[in-house]
Design brief:
Chain B has about 220 residues and is an all-alpha fold. Chain B is about 80% helix and about 0% strand. Chain B has a single domain, classed as MetI-like (MetI-like fold, Orthogonal Bundle). Chain C has 9 helices and 10 strands. Classes of the chains: A alpha/beta (about 260), B mainly alpha (about 220), C alpha/beta (about 250), D mainly alpha (about 230). Bound molecules: adenosine-5'-triphosphate (2 copies) and magnesium ion (2 copies).
Chain lengths: ~260, ~220, ~250, ~230, ~250
């Protein structure tokens, strides 16, 4: 109908020449707009000096530097990462974005730079070590995460409590609003290090997954550029350095760089 | 998948959210009316201490956002061991907010009763209680109906903020689906329709009620 | 000697800093009809509102049937059953029928049985020619009819003193007459003690045993009715009377 | 332990950042209010014109903004506008636009209400001395409506300010979003920090809105006294 | 023969289904003063509001200075500069000073220079004895003063016809006289054509060259002033005159 055709035409228009997020456009503009998290230490967060820091942020700055433009950060929550790209709010997402088949249909992922899988954290006093323990219990997740997706599609008899932000979900867990919390295991490792009363009882469920930068569907120009840049950074050991400076201090002994960084 | 299929698949979830929104609004509104009426009566009868407490409550509640009130109830209070489940938080929050709005509505009605009516009542020897019972309340309730109606609509819309404390009402459902399946246009459309289904008929009913009540009591 | 119904001594009234009534002194005997005249803003309304406690006063005393009123809200509330008052605006309760308007005082305040009160009310309604309207709501009445009902409502309490404050001021000119007629009849036929504030000089002349002439919150003269209209004692009153008819 | 939690506010630049967030909030509210109030007055005037079609369109505009919760409006404008219409604005501007349009809708109703409650004889006196419609509004109706509507307008202003709390949902770095960052970054050292951070946000909103409500209430009271006295 | 200022033929007016004015016919010559009398609700206000287009009428014609008015809003708006009207309620604009109230018409509508208009306005203010109030706001005036200013405001446009609708009805009795005096003077000293609706019979008698007596939207009689008050032609008018004085 009329509505559908108009959206189609605008879509085709945005993927062609007047896409505002091509490398050329970005260079012309002098800034690259990057979606990041603001409340997820140690990946993307704001320290008490008000600076945006973290593993993703270091990468983001490096990418901007390689592009010879200034970075401009747009803070997002997990459930608006896709729309931030599609509505041209940002050029690139570097917000711990896990590659999934559904997401691939609506946006384009560049080469991955991190490995993760879903983990489950719970209080040490009542640890959850098997998924079966979650049957008909409340499990805390953040909207739009792979954890939510996994439990919604694969474990339908778990009650999910869905939050908008990481702050909210971790607070909810501390207040015992659910028996456990599911999210990417890499955050959970970092979080439990500071929360001695909690443990990552299930270290990994579901398939091993990858974190990658994302661009708007059809933005070949930026996608290709990013792939090249990631390859270059991989070769010169950037990710290990990034790991050592941003992540290592937050992780316990149970995590090794090779669990996270892709070699 | 076509838009229509997307929408169809989501309908069961939206239906759950819809019912929850209705249910929470209903409890919240009833609670708000009760709290509001109590505050208003405390003020009208100038009950010492309690009327002052009510006044302070009204000001705090009216001048802070529901979202912050909910954050407080949901995230901050448990730090000190006071924990309510999400739905209860939502309802308590909504009543906390709505109580003051309703109180103001009733106050407006009672204050709106004309001074000559009150004096006439006094002149025939009515006591304060009798004055309230036969003159101020019957006329004041009628006068407050428009404000109460506006508050009811307002409170229903405020339930959309419950999304921040993970209550799967309408808005939360839509945002969640968007986060998983990325079809924001379709889901937001369903969401808007969901609110319209509740609010359009309700606002028509309330307008009719207003007209009727006004005519019933003040046709002069 | 006739019984003194009301006596006012050294009454002073302020609104915040404004001195509205200055050293008011007068008394009224049973059955006497007093017209309270004076230019707009002179304090007539304020004075009669002080007489049934609707306005607090800051100094002086009001005595009713020889007993000085201790001016608490409770005392006034009791006294108001004995003091009927009718205001300028038709002040019926819009949420009650005519009959319920009238019965509210007798039944709820004086605790008469509804039957007795109703019988009395219907007699009064007959007198003002509005018996058939007893079950309608005030909005269905004309201004003049409303005002007659308001008078009935005050009379239904069987008051010892009636206060009328410009009861015809907001009526259409053609309606005025009916209402004034009722008050005249009341003044002449019954033994009711009354204070009447009015701007209708012919009417005042017809009913008043005595005139209190007020200006700027002071009683300028207290004169017998006939005499006031023929030969006012003060120049101000003379001037006032002249201005009142074109 | 609880009492020491308050120190979370004084760590690093936390407090300054919270005030910075508040500034963003206030800025968006202020710009939206200025635009919205002006547009609202214009629409309110138009709604008193006899043209039925115009009135219907404006009424639908009002009802749309009345029925759709503000949260939903924000998402609609943030995500749908760019996709369907190709208009792309940063979050702060989207927020400003949404709030301005919403304010205009509500304001148009307030203005309309005030205009039609200017006594009829005022309108007629204006006509009787030969004023045309524009002059009638300019010299007679609008100046009088303004004083009638002022309390309601102030109440609308407080509502808009309160509702800016929803900005956190669309990536605006408002005071609540900053608050969440602070809570997360200081979680370990100050487990009760969440109470103090949300506490100060609560106080901030109250400090802005309360004086405004108080003012509106006082004016309403005065008007009531005038009407009764 | 004097010039005919206004002529009304077969005027019919409905409010929805209510037939308010029935076949109204009359004309008024320059300089004539016509009193429009009749009971409340008879249609007096409605009639004079039709004469300057504030009310639309459904049938019949109004002619002004011999030209039939084509009743569009634009035409009326132009005509209203030549037809002054003063209403019952003090209808000054509360947001403007006295002077600005008066100058609004001359300056904004007639595009006179402010200086000329101001000089004329001050002369008029002198005539009503209110020159010193030119810079105050209406709320600081008494009712009688406000109404005098309203008359000045209408006169400032130099109208050929003045319409007065019960201009003293909401005034305090003592204020009435001053306002009526000004209208009398205007009627007698100037050559102004006027239609005056009033309930003050003495006043009407004094100024009216002719009386139109209206009842139920029909003109029951048109009689010379003196004659109407001494010997009305219809019983209804006689009855009306009797009811008007107590
Ligand atoms: N609530 C009030 N606050 C302050 N001043 C008041 C108040 N009510 C009345 N006044 C002042 O008190 C004076 C007397 O007023 P009052 O109404 O008693 O006069 P009145 O003689 O009844 O006049 P009228 O004939 O117009 O009814 C006036 O100057 C008036 O302005
Ligand atoms: N806006 C209106 N809608 C319907 N009917 C109206 C309206 N205005 C007036 N009427 C009716 O028209 C009739 C004439 O009213 P109008 O005001 O002209 O009478 P009037 O002679 O001026 O009375 P008064 O002496 O009380 O001013 C009345 O029956 C009135 O009810
Ligand atoms: Mg008075
Ligand atoms: Mg009239």
């Amino acid at each position: 109908s009329g509505c559908g055709s108009s959206s189609k035409s605008s879509k085709s228009a945005s993927s062609s020449s007047n896409n505002p997020s091509t490398v050329q456009q970005i260079k012309k503009r002098g800034t690259i707009r990057i979606a990041v998290f603001g409340d997820l230490p140690p990946y993307g967060w704001v320290n008490k000096q008000g600076q945006r820091v973290g593993y993703d942020l270091t990468l983001a700055r490096q990418i901007a530097k390689d592009l010879k433009v200034k970075p401009k950060f747009v803070q997002v929550n997990a459930n608006n990462r896709v729309d931030a790209l599609n509505s041209n709010k940002v050029d690139l997402v570097l917000a711990n974005f896990t590659v999934t088949p559904q997401r691939k249909q609506v946006i384009d992922f560049a080469s991955p730079y991190m490995k993760v899988s879903v983990g489950v954290v719970s209080p040490k006093s009542k640890p959850v070590t098997k998924v079966s323990q979650l049957q008909n219990k409340s499990l805390i997740v953040t909207k739009g995460t792979t954890a939510e997706n996994y439990f919604t599609t694969k474990q339908q008899n778990v009650n999910l409590l869905k939050f908008d932000s990481k702050t909210q979900q971790f607070n909810a867990l501390k207040n015992n609003r659910g028996v456990a919390l599911a999210d990417d295991n890499s955050y959970l490792y970092a979080w439990v290090k500071n929360q001695p009363k909690f443990t990552v009882g299930i270290k990994s469920i579901g398939p091993k997954q990858y974190i990658a930068p994302a661009v708007k569907k059809g933005n070949k120009s930026l996608l290709n550029w990013t792939n090249k840049d990631i390859k270059k950074l991989n070769n010169n050991g950037f990710f290990e350095k990034d790991y050592n400076s941003q992540l290592k201090p937050y992780f316990g002994k149970e995590v090794r760089p090779s669990d996270i960084v892709i070699k | 998948m076509s838009s229509w299929q997307i929408i169809q698949q989501s309908l069961p979830l939206f239906e759950k959210g819809f019912i929850l929104t209705l249910w929470l609004s209903f409890i919240g509104i009833i609670g708000s009316i009760i709290v509001g009426l109590i505050c208003s009566l405390l003020k009208y009868f100038r009950v010492p201490v309690f009327s002052q407490i009510a006044a302070v409550y009204v000001e705090i509640s009216r001048n802070t956002p529901l979202l912050v009130q909910l954050f407080f109830l949901y995230y901050a209070f448990p730090v000190f061991g006071f924990k309510l489940n999400a739905e209860l938080c939502g309802i308590v929050g909504l009543i906390f907010l709505g109580g003051s709005y309703m109180a103001e509505g009733f106050n407006g009605g009672f204050d709106g009763v004309s001074k000559t009516q009150v004096e006439t009542g006094k002149a025939i020897g009515l006591s304060r209680m009798q004055l309230a019972r036969y003159v101020v309340f019957p006329q004041g309730f009628t006068l407050s109906v428009p404000a109460l109606a506006a508050n009811i609509i307002f409170l229903i819309k405020e339930t959309s903020i419950f999304t921040v404390i993970a209550i799967p009402e309408l808005t939360n459902t839509a945002l969640d689906l968007i986060g998983m399946y990325y079809r924001s246009s379709e889901y937001l459309l369903v969401l808007v329709i969901g609110y319209a289904i509740i609010l359009i008929p309700l606002s028509i009913i309330l307008t009719l009620l207003e007209k009727r009540v006004r005519y019933g009591a003040f046709g002069n | 000697m006739a019984k003194q119904v009301i006596k006012v001594e050294h009454l002073e009234k302020y609104y915040q800093k404004d001195h509205i009534l200055h050293d008011i002194n007068f008394s009224i005997d049973q059955g006497e009809v007093v017209a309270l005249l004076g230019p707009s803003g002179s304090g007539k309304s304020t004075l009669i509102r002080c007489l049934n406690g609707l306005e607090p006063y800051q100094n002086g005393t009001v005595s009713f049937n020889g007993d000085q009123v201790v001016p608490t809200e409770k005392n006034w509330q009791k006294l108001r059953q004995k003091i009927g008052m009718v205001f300028q605006s038709y002040d019926l309760f819009p949420n009650l029928t005519v009959l319920d308007n009238i019965l509210l005082g007798p039944v709820k305040v004086q605790k008469q049985s509804r039957e007795t009160a109703k019988a009395a009310a219907e007699k009064l309604l007959d007198q003002v020619g509005l018996r058939e309207y007893e079950n309608v709501y005030p909005r269905q009445l004309s201004g003049g009819q409303k005002q007659r009902i308001a008078i009935v409502r005050a009379l239904a309490l069987n008051p010892e003193l009636m206060l009328f404050d410009e009861v015809t001021a907001s009526l259409d000119p053609e309606m005025v007459r009916g209402v004034l007629n009722i008050i005249s009849k009341l003044a002449q036929d019954s033994d009711m003690t009354m204070i009447v504030v009015t701007h209708e000089m012919n009417f005042a002349q017809q009913i008043a045993d005595r005139v209190l002439f007020l200006e700027d919150g002071k009683i300028l003269e207290q004169t017998k009715g006939d005499q006031f209209f023929k030969q006012p004692q003060t120049d101000r009153a003379k001037e006032f009377l002249e201005s009142m008819d074109f | 332990m609880a009492h020491s939690g308050i120190n979370v506010l004084f760590e690093g630049r936390n407090l300054i950042r919270l005030f910075g967030g508040l500034w963003t909030t206030v800025e968006i509210a202020a710009v939206a209010l200025v635009l919205g109030l002006i547009l609202g007055v214009i629409l309110g005037v138009l709604r008193t014109f006899p043209n039925r079609l115009l009135r219907l369109v404006l009424r639908l505009y009002l009802e749309f903004f009345r029925i759709v919760p503000t949260v939903v409006l924000l998402f609609l404008f943030y995500y749908i506008l760019p996709k369907q219409l190709g208009v792309n604005l940063p979050a702060n501007q989207v927020a400003t636009l949404v709030f301005a349009l919403w304010t205009a809708a509500e304001m148009s109703d307030i203005v309309r209400g005030a205009l039609i409650s200017v006594p009829k004889h005022q309108r007629e006196s204006g006509m009787a001395i030969g004023l045309n419609r524009l002059q009638l509004y300019r010299y007679v109706l609008i100046p009088q409506a303004v004083s009638l509507e002022l309390p309601a307008t102030i109440n609308l202003v407080t509502r808009v300010i309160k509702t800016t709390s929803l900005l956190m949902l669309i990536s605006v770095m408002d005071v609540i979003n900053v608050g969440q960052q602070v809570v997360e970054a200081n979680n370990q050292k100050y487990p009760t920090g969440v109470f103090w951070v949300y506490g100060i946000i609560f106080v901030m909103y109250f400090a802005i809105d309360y004086p405004l409500s108080w003012w509106a209430k006082r004016m309403d009271k005065k008007r009531l006294e005038r009407a009764n006295g």
